[in-house]
Amino acid sequence: MNVLDEGQIGSASLAGTLARVRELIDLGGPVVVILGFMSIIALTILFLKLWQFRSLQLGDRRTAREMLRLYRGGRGKEAVALACRSRNPVAQVLALAIRGRRRSELSEARVREEVVRVAADQLEALRSYFRPLEVIASLAPLLGLFGTVLGMITAFQQLQQAGNQVDPAILSGGIWEALLTTAVGLGVAIPVVVVINWLERKIDRLAHEMQSTVTQVFTLDLLQTAEDLAPSAESAEGDDERYENAGFRADDIGFRARVAGE
């Protein structure tokens, strides 16, 4: 098969698809046209959000972890410099928290307030265009149902005009054409609902990661104290075990002495 034949097959397939779309529009009427525009808007927003998430490197968790490791090691300046090479929102908010903590003239409450504000702005930017998707997800089934009601009205009008010469095909044909708009409305709404939930889940995970990493900057002293106390706790457990063993040996010696005396 040469290139010319493949081009002809592709053109024929495209022509067939356009013909089916035109037939669908003729059967469904203006409601299907509106639903088609809504699906195009939803797809555009989806591609826009995917591009936004990819450009912001939302899957990059290594940078924030490396920044925390550097900050714990007393290398806060290197941690902030590392954030300059990443557009990840967690890394940016974490860098702001580290810069604020390194400036002794700023109170912790003031730094926390600014970090919370910037984090909220970052999350709000990620949630942009969610409202149109929510409107499409809720409105598409209602529009489909509205088209079905209009189609049923038309079908019964045709049935009335037929009079005594009623043909069941007239009623059944009108009903399935009316139900077509409901199917199209659900076909638009269901994928949009799935997309909204997927996007919100990613943002919720990002918000949790942002809160967790920033909190570790403010509780660094507490974490270091816990690490320092860990060996002491192990030593205390060892001492308790030695004391228990010593007490057991003392009881054993006393028992043997009583047996010998008897």
From TrEMBL:
One cellular component term from this protein's GO annotations in UniProt: plasma membrane
Keyword Transmembrane: yes
Domain MotA/TolQ/ExbB proton channel intervals: 89-211
Record has Transmembrane helix as a keyword: yes
Membrane topology according to the record: Multi-pass membrane protein
GO biological process: protein import
Highest taxon listed in the record's lineage: Bacteria
Coarse class of the protein's main subcellular location: membrane
Cell compartments where the protein resides: Cell membrane; Membrane
Keyword annotations of the record: Cell membrane, Membrane, Protein transport, Transmembrane, Transmembrane helix, Transport
Transmembrane segments: 27-48, 135-155, 175-199
InterPro entries: ExbB/TolQ_transport, MotA_ExbB_proton_chnl
Family to which the UniProt record says this protein belongs: Belongs to the exbB/tolQ family.
Protein name: MotA/TolQ/ExbB proton channel family protein
Organism: Nitrococcus mobilis Nb-231
